Amino acid sequence: MARIIVVTSGKGGVGKTTTSAAIAMGLAKKGHRTAVIDFDVGLRNLDLIMGCERRVVYDFVNVINEEASINQALIRDKRSENLFILPASQTRDKDSLTKEGVGRVLGALSETFDYVVCDSPAGIEKGATLAMYYADDAIIVTNPEVSSVRDSDRMLGILASKSRRAETAAEPIKEYLLLTRYSPERVRLGEMLSVNDVQEILSLHLLGVIPDSKAVLNASNAGTPVILDDKSDAGQAYADVVARYLGEEVPHRFIEFQKRTLFGRLFGG
Amino acid sequence: MNLLDYFRKSRHSSASIAKERLQILVAHERAARNKPDYLPKLQKELLEVIRKYVQVDLDAISVTMEQDDKREVLELNIVLPDDRERKPVQQF
Question: Is this complex's ipTM strictly greater than 0.90?
């Protein structure tokens, strides 16, 4: 039985796809068979972040409509044999995802995978609500910024009322906060909400803090999940997040502002 | 944190304004989210019943729903007018 993880936020552009790619790769690197699904029908992008955009033949909607088998549509990652990607369709038909269809695909994946990561689209429309409907765990990606925090809280309300676990009165979805694009320096200057501020407002368990980092754009330019850049701050922060998700006790890093030494400033260390 | 930081991170820093605004907004939105949809209708019908017996103002009644882990409390608050102002509704 796979554990189903939804990566969601409400607001767009906060780092859901970057996070889905990094966490899926991190789980796979730790030896877990992992599938990552793009729920953003019409605006697929996970394939690009994962670097497999030229290998897409069939997609999620083809599988739901039984035009392709799940094994035909899954793309095996070239860097990890445990990782598979199910791309979104580029169709403009909004109703192509159905609750039954998504349930069927997730049920089939559950039989052979350990983890299924659902990359939610922004907003609260069908793609987003279906991405979270079957979830066991939810990672709420939030930027330390007012509109993102508000939207995250809105998503918490939807998770608590419109998920399968809520409807069947099962144990509630486990919710985790992932704070991304964090700038310790701006927090120190009082220009940005701190980790504690956001946690206090949302009262969520903190899974990790990803610093605002050049490595994220570099990684997406190359189609490599940023977690594979293990020399970068963001890559290390995501590795910590995966370890923490799997139950390891890892202290939080990249929260305090590190003053750069003269040596560091001169040599860019 | 040094002394300079203390002054920089004053009460008026943009981050503290953001936090304050969010705390108010989120509390408000959460309260609205947990309310059952029938509350406004319940309030209206209760008011109609009460006004059969006592003439109360439209805004003299409030219905609130509070929830904690163990129970839900439906609180009904009616402010009755003073004795002098009270005009009993004629009963047949």
Answer: no
What's the token pair of residue A258? 């590190």
CA angle A252, A183, A194 (to 5 degrees): 65
Q: Which residues of A touch B26 (CB under 8 A)?
A: 149-150, 153, 201-202
Is A185 part of the contact surface with chain B (CB cutoff 8 Å)? Answer: no
The C-alpha atoms of residue A247 and residue B46 are separated, in whole angstroms, by: 52
Distance CA(A131)–CA(A101), nearest Å, equals 12
At A21-31, the pLDDT tens digits run 999 999 999 99
Distance separating alpha carbons of residues A45 and B51, to the nearest angstrom: 61
CA A200/CA A241 separation, integer angstroms:
20
- First vs last C-alpha separation in chain A: 44
H-helix or E-strand spanning residue B74: strand B72-78
CB A177 within 8 A of CB A205: yes
| Residues A53/A63, Cβ–Cβ less than 8 Å | no
What phi and psi values does residue B45 have, to the nearest 5 degrees?
A: -70, -40
CB contact, 8 Å: A192 with chain B? yes
For A188, other C-beta atoms within 10 Å of its C-beta total: 17
User: One-letter amino acid identity for A127?
Assistant: G
Query: Which pTM does this prediction carry?
Result: 0.83
> What Å distances lie between residue A268 and A81, A212, A232, A263, A265, CA to CA?
35, 17, 13, 8, 5
Chain A interface, best mutation among B20, B26, B67, by max A CB count within 10 A = B26
